[in-house]
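Tokens in:
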């Protein structure tokens, strides 16, 4: 009725498996909590936890300034602050959230003017205080700009202020 290439050769009708037939045939139960499986579960969850911790730690450290690379500093002027927002969906609808701010600033090194726009992510009270200070002191030379001595065009706006 079927040729040799059909699935009928692979499909067989089995009798229902009972506890007695497992012992007789030597079939192990598929779910058991022995020391080896508990160790695997703990290893998997701890690996996921460590990976999550490292990911969060790296994301929070992105604003950290490498003071060895940015080894010189000068005063700068913030001339523009542009709010960047994004959408957030929830059960109540779609909302806009503030993601961060594009801060435009300029500074002088050896008589040459450098302009730069830097994105400051809005995450918490430290950024809130800095943004508030920037709004209050826009167009005044009260900001610390750190730059690389060999590359004065490569700079970062420091969150310390005078």
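Residues out:
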């Amino acid at each position: 009725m079927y040729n040799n290439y059909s699935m009928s050769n692979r499909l067989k009708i089995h009798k229902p498996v009972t506890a007695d037939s497992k012992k007789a045939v030597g079939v192990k139960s598929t779910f058991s909590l022995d020391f080896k499986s508990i160790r695997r579960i703990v290893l998997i969850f701890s690996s996921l936890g460590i990976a999550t911790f490292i990911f969060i730690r790296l994301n929070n450290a992105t604003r950290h300034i490498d003071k060895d690379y940015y080894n010189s500093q000068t005063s700068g002027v913030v001339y523009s602050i542009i709010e960047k927002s994004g959408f957030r969906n929830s059960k109540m609808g779609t909302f806009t959230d503030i993601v961060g701010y594009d801060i435009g600033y300029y500074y002088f090194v050896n008589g040459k003017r450098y302009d730069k726009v830097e994105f400051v992510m809005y995450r918490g009270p430290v950024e809130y205080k800095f943004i508030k200070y920037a709004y209050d002191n826009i167009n005044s030379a009260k900001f610390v700009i750190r730059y690389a001595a060999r590359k004065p065009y490569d700079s970062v706006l420091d969150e310390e202020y005078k």
